[in-house]
Amino acid sequence: MFALTEIAVSGRVVDLIVGPAGAGKTTAMNALRRAWEKEHGQGSVVGLAPSSSAAQVLAEDLGIATENTAKWWQNHLREGETFQSGQLVIVDEASLAGTLSLDRITRLAAEAGAKVLLVGDYAQLQAVDAGGAFGMISHDRDDVPELVDVHRFTHDWEKRASLDLRHGHAGVIDIYDEHQRVVDGDTEGMIDAAYAAWRRDLVAGRATVLVSDSNESVTALNNRARTDLILDGTVRGSRESELHDGTRAASGDIVITRRNDRRLLAGRGWVRNGDRWNVVDVRRDRLMLVRRAGSSRRNSVLLPADYVTEHVELGYAVTSFRAQGLTTDTTHVLVDSTMTRETLYVAMTRGRDANVAYVTVDKPDASHDGPHPGENDEVTGRSVLEGVLQHVGAELSAHETIAVEQESWGTITQLAAEYETIAAAAQRDRWAALVRASGLSAEQAVEVIESDAFGPLTAELRRAEANHHDVAVLFPRLVRARDFGDADDIAAVMRHRLTAATARPAGAGRTRRAPRLIAGLVPEVTGPVADEMCQALDERRDLIIQRADAVLDRAIAVGASWIDKIAPLPDATNLREAWWQSARAIAAYRNRYTIKLESVLGPRPEDTDQRIDYARAEAALNRARRNAEHEHVELAHRVVRQRSSFGQTM
């Protein structure tokens, strides 16, 4: 309540309330409405929302006049409609409002002496138009009230887990898994499992919904659901209407309208985009009589045949975007690697009693008849979910985009790319000479040097040299190893041979030397390089190390959980330096590949180049843990020796 009081008396034109799914934003808005109207009079609070459905819900929840933002702007342009001094303008679902729309509203409110309250959640779905304003303001201000008590869910654990899901904390996957809320398998199996669970809930009388981000899956699930409902007699009409996506509907079906039409009145309301309806009857002329889901006969309307054909869909399965705003008993969510954190969070917070993720771990594709080289055989439901939580889809404002772009120029991603580009240019002539002297024919040498794979080959040569291999000896030997037959690309073949031959640093046992890697990750250039190129490379090398150290320092300062998962910082000076070297490599990897998960390295990557860096970071992690174990053993031995010495003196 203190936060609401602060909003009421802040004196600012724009204030915000941020709240996760099911956190009682409506209750907070109602309390503020009552307080505002007590001070400014009845009708001094008005509402706006990006969609007509959201505006209608806001009107019903708060008992105020509402409109969708697009229609309100049209009314302003045509009829001069505007705000009044002392009004409170509540914009609900503000994260879905475009930046231009919010700018228009706040500008007119400021001119009129009104106040705007933006209500929403930056962690849910964003505007279709250019957006990001709500998220920018909520992140820039340090006094934005954020509701944290989640009321929607039946189970206390899910209330807490939903907040971790919202923030992308990977550890929450284990919590959902422990409560049997994560199932994984191939796509077909997951579609079957999700549908079967939805069907059981439906038969049990629960309000339930299927959610998928694939329009094809939504259509297939809707058709499947309808077929079963026809067989059990729920859908029983003899006449059907064809809907806009090619599906059909009859009496007993559930449908969703997809276009606002104020001429089609249903009770006190009208037909809105996103409304759910029960089909009562399909007339001979294909007019469709529908009743608003969960309401009385007075909320019925006769939909014209052309509206049905163009703007109506079945409503058993929906996308995450259509699901936002729904509350059901249970939700069954098809998850794949293309989802974002926001769509997953929205989908997994619709059900009061249960929200279950059915995670697909394959890649269904007509061209994939079997496993292909380079595919990751270790994909699991957890690794897919970790990737989804790391995939932030929220749009940034223009201001935030500029800041991110400026920041990106100092990341290891950028610095390593610059280093490798300079290295390729600086050593191109050297590697071309090596190819010509390797035993290849003149024609083959030209083919290699002009190949698109020559760049990756030279990068592999640099990596091999950083691993202390004598490439001047090794490369010709690999050329002679076997002929090239009818190889399409000799450069690609040689890169493959070189990669296989130099997977480990040269030498064995005590003679093996550590690879020459910048920040434990980027192979360092060796061999002759022009002075100006050498200076440019040295500058990038130093910046990469500085950036890795800065990332590590920051993680330690804020107590990042991934730091604690490496190994304790040793007490011994020599081991402490070794720990820092290992942690620096991990920090460099996380920064280069934008790893934001709580796990140290994130999911095992599928990309070939990233897999190489992952292996380097993983080796650094293992070294740090071995050193920690070594120190622990040494400490134990020291204690034993001290006790033994003490016993002898006795």
From TrEMBL:
It comes from the Bacteria. InterPro entries: P-loop_NTPase (IPR027417). This is Conjugal transfer protein. Gene3D superfamilies: 2.30.30.940, P-loop containing nucleotide triphosphate hydrolases. Coiled coil: none annotated. Signal peptide: none annotated. SUPFAM superfamilies: P-loop containing nucleoside triphosphate hydrolases. Pfam families: AAA_30.
